Amino acid sequence: MSGSSALPGVRQVLPADGRARLVGRLGIDGVAPVPVLVLGGDVWDLRPVAATVSQLLEVGDLVATLDDIASGRPLCGVDDVAGEADLTSSTSAPVLLSPVDLQVLKACGVTFAGSMLERLIEERSAGDPARANVLRAELESGGLGDEPLDLSTVVPGSRKAAEVKARLVANNLWSAYLEVGLGPDPEVFTKAPVLSSVGSLSHIGIPEFSQWNNPEPELVLAVNSRGVPVGAALGNDVNLRDVEGRSALLLGMAKDNNRSAALGPFIRIFDEHFTLDHARSLQISLRVDGLDGFVLHGTNVVAALSRSFEDLIAATYGRHHQYPDGFALFTGTLFAPTEDRDTPGLGFTHHLGDVVTISSPELGSLVDVVGRSEELPPWQYGVGALLADHRNRTDHMTTRRNLP
After folding, report:
1. Closest CA to 260 of 327, 187, 193
2. Is residue 183 classed exposed, middle or buried when 0-12, 13-18 and 19+ CB atoms within 10 A define those classes?
3. In whole angstroms, what is the distance from residue 376 CA to residue 394 CA?
């Protein structure tokens, strides 16, 4: 892959399991984004059940409802759907969108204690990749004393976690990341505004003020208004390491920019073939293909999460905070790239034109091309536009009913 012209088709980004019940959205000229079911190679319109994906995920017996829809006539086939990155002015095909709409986009950070040191390095280097490389070398050579520091088995909030935290502080490595990585409460933040995420076969954005950044391959849980996870998707929590490294208080600047949240290709609904427990054991692969011939590989092992899905959901939703339209929860990543790309010692950063592929056999592939946030199409379709489109559709239907 060397650019958008080499992107796969929608069929190629589907899960390997043809039994997967997949829910997503299509952009169709003249109407509000259409919630759809994809099963096998066919696509069904879900508007008879719900106007939005958010509403759909509130349905009580969702699997039976989807199967009932699938017994009818399909809207189209997956080969009739185009990716946004391949659109031309003459293209009128339905366009694959992010599979969420009114859900709040939430994200959890430092959920893998085993990768917490990389966050400490990022912060201690103040976002400077050269300084980060020096500090990383010091820690790997025993900079924390003779006893090896293994964070992979540390349970946040435990006595062992408190001991590890004290050891890091004693070595002048105090950080706000220690509290959320080892303490009783996880980091949960709002990743991006409602309706601002992009889907697979689209573009993700890196702003011009960042010189050190990377993809973050994650499992995303689709959670309804009752706090119940009803499905899962792949996500890219695009990260600006230089910005967040300067200060943890710059998290919003580091995480929320034009096209900085990608989800897809679809939400796989939990059913008899794919359960929440299956999601706990996923391995998510990352590949970055650059126009310069550079290739980066990485893996996120969901089973290595230091906190359970239930703990992350409970920290997000409860009596302290409600989400009437549900939420999409990025669960964090084990992956932090340190491989040099350009100057030795400066690690990895994105180049424009990178093709980022985040995949698993169970969930398919989230494939996006890196562009400049300031130059990519801006986010213009918000809640007001969605309401207007639905109102226009209702007015049109009312007018047709009143015709003689």
Report:
1. 193
2. middle
3. 32
Please give the structure tokens belonging to residue 62.
Answer: 């969702």
* CA dist., res. 331 & res. 188, Å (int): 9
Pick from 14-18, 169-173, 327-331, 348-352: least confident: 169-173
Torsional sign, CA 122, 125, 130, 134: negative
- Distance CA(26)–CA(265), nearest Å, equals 11
> In whole angstroms, what is the distance from residue 320 CA to residue 136 CA?
39
Which strand (E) or helix (H) includes residue 352? none
In the chain, the amino acid numbered 134 is: V
Determine the longest span between alpha carbons in the chain, in angstroms: 87
> Which tens digit of pLDDT belongs to each residue from 22-80?
999 999 988 899 999 999 999 999 999 999 999 999 999 999 999 999 999 999 999 99
CB neighbours of residue 119 within 10 Å: 24
Tracing tokens 């900079």 back to the chain, one arrives at: 143
Q: Please, are residues 51 and 390 in contact by the beta-carbon 8 Å criterion?
A: yes
Query: CA gyration radius for the chain?
Result: 22
- CA dist 175 and 154 (Å) reads 17
- For 98, the token pair is 């992010």
Asked whether the CA dihedral 243, 245, 247, 248 is positive or negative, the reply is positive
Please check whether residue 131 is in contact with residue 155, taking contact to mean a CB–CB distance below 8 angstroms: no
Residue 401: predicted pLDDT: 37
- The secondary structure element, H or E, covering residue 365 is strand 364-372
Burial of 107 (0-12, 13-18, 19+ CB in 10 A): buried
Structure tokens at 20: 């997967």
